[in-house]
Amino acid sequence: MKKLYSPDSSRVVVGSLLPNLKKMALPLMVALLSAGSALSQDFADHLVISEVSGGGGNPDAPYNSDYIELYNPTSADISINDWSVQYSPADGTSWSATPLTGTVKSKGYFLIKLYTGNGLADLPHFDLQGGTSIASLRGKVVLVNTTTPVEGANPEGAHIIDKVGWGQTGTAATGFEGMPAPTSNTTSVLERKAFATSTAESMGPNGEDVNQGNGYDSNNNNQDFVITGTPSPQYSGSPTESPTVASAGEELAGAGLPKSFVLSAVFPNPVQAEGTIKFGLPKASAVQFMLYSAAGAKVQEKKLGTFAAGYHEVKAFSVTENKLAPGAYILRLTSNSGTVSERVVITR
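Now predict its structure.
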């Protein structure tokens, strides 16, 4: 299957999938957004948790240390000074923080070595060491842009850069994006996919996606991660990786006009001052913009104007002019060709 990669986009949603969002509560809208990822290509525009292993300390584990791997899918290096990775048991409400320092190169990796016990081998390389012990079967990890421990079973907020919960059986994970990822085991690892179509096999040794990065992010852990039987921890000295395919915009442009109403980018995301959107129309249409809070309240609505068929870039909103509070929002566009939506985070 030919894959579309959008380096400046975190979501491309087909409008016809969401024809009646006006009548739906926000939680259902979020669920539909995640469900649509099988027909779209969603790539993170921020640092992500790319691999988690809790096998350290088990005699059958391939390595004797737990670890968390980070991946930078963006086009710029990212400083993680005064950031942290934090772990909590599957149903826990308190979190153990490991402070971070350093820089993750564009398309590069960063490896955090954690609890060390029994196992077949030492980790050959790592960038930073901590002592937190991670459960192999089920648990949850957050990447935070502070070193202050988060609180609660499923923490939210602009300071949460990424989050993954795994374990759907037994005491299932209570912190996650969308749905928890599958239950792991002592010999396997939780690995973020390269594409929506990636599988455990394609992400494994000699798989077609193994060197394509780990940037797929539909905001649904169950869709974004696979359990792979061959851990392959990568660190800052590992080769950089990025999808070697064309951008979604290039693919669509090469095929002529968009075949459906698409939202190809919201940037920057998170937004601190002004939010700009890129979208494509299969035919001329008036376009309306709406912004919903995480609680489902409509906080802004306006007509963007009438646009010709093709691709357009428009400043959609101003954080200061509209007095928008920091937090997570759902941005929605409607046209004669349907509805497209995207999650956006606002910071100050």
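The chain has two domains: 15-38+256-346, 44-242.
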